[in-house]
Amino acid sequence: MPVVETLSGLERRVDLSVPVADVEKQVDSRLKSLARTAKMPGFRPGKVPMSMVTRTYGPELRLEVINTKIGEAFEAAVGESKLRVAGMPRVEPKADAAVEGEIAFTATFEVYPEVKLNDLSTLEVTRAEASVGDEEIDRTLDILRKQRLSFEERADRAAADNDQITLDFVGKIDGVAFEGGSAEDFAFVLGQGRMLPEFEDAARGLKAGDTKTFPLAFPADYGSADVAGKTAEFAITIKKVEEGVLPVVDAEFAKQLGQAEGDVEKLRADIRSNLEREVKSRVQARTKSSVMDALVKAAEFDVPKSLVSDDTERRVASAREDLKSRGVPNADSMPIPAEAFTEESERRVRLGLIVSELVQAENLQAKPEQVRGKIEEFSQNYERPAEVIGYYLADKRRRAEVEAVVLEDNVVAHVLAKAKVTEQKVSFDELMGTA
User: Fold this and answer.
1) What region holds the PPIase FKBP-type domain (predicted)?
2) Could you tell me which residues come within 8 angstroms of residue 48 by beta carbon, excluding any fewer than 6 positions away?
């Protein structure tokens, strides 16, 4: 039985060997099998001379057989030692210790650490709380109204923020018009930052038919290099001023938002229900984050470097794919330093090992009825819930994604039942990121 040597921490090493005779026997068997169907120019299938088959395919087959034999020897060695291997082993030839008739190798690898969790009652976590009231519903209605803003022309209205103005303009630098500096019947809404501040300031207070000439200094970092850092003179003529008109919250408005009966109170109830689902989701996410932050400190152990490296490589690949999806040129060859992800990868691996240990120790695996319940909960966010349920139930991979969510929910619930929990009131604006 090979002796597994402890190098340091989680790193182990074992010497392996395979008999050359076993390798050659299997190579010979594969070559004979291959020769029965081998095709080469000038020969009928199965009639290629054995010497040519051996010369053509022998080296590749021998390497495959050696790799297979080494893999089997490695699996047997770690199996007898009852070791859980983390990541892929590094296998290297061991020429200085070769025994005649054997091929010797050294396999260096890492093992999973023993994870001993601290008493969960010592952990401190915060449980977020938030509520949805009439004020939040009113503000959501205001947002929905602004999304359906219409504009009505006002003959004598002085242009103000949130008005839409239509104008002609001509911009010149040193008396010469420049590309992109002129337009006719150009419309924009004042106060939304679409135009440079000096341009909007000049238009404010003007009425239809008014004209104005003013200087405008382009920023040094302006998008067009031809005008960046230069001062232009603009002449504008206001053609039309339109005031923004918000729709009234009435039966017609309710129908536009999908309330078939045009019942405003039912519309408000729908909005409340949607907001409560979103608030619940975000509150759970905040609480889960607090639990995971606490859990990552719940045990001290060495983290397998190979697992950290694997996670880092995946994150680099994901970052590269993200750049490609954004249309960034040279995304395939752009240097992305792995070191930028190492700290987070180590945290992810550590947390994954802790969660795995907790799940096994406390039997927190996702149960079928929990998965079904979570899918039904997801489905309420869509117009056709039954189709969403069928979508998840019909595919094993999709169900696995939901199982992972349920498993995390089980871990969070277990920790909350054991740890020191502080209730944290979170405002609606802070929770939604609008504070």
Assistant:
1) 162-247
2) 35, 38, 39, 40
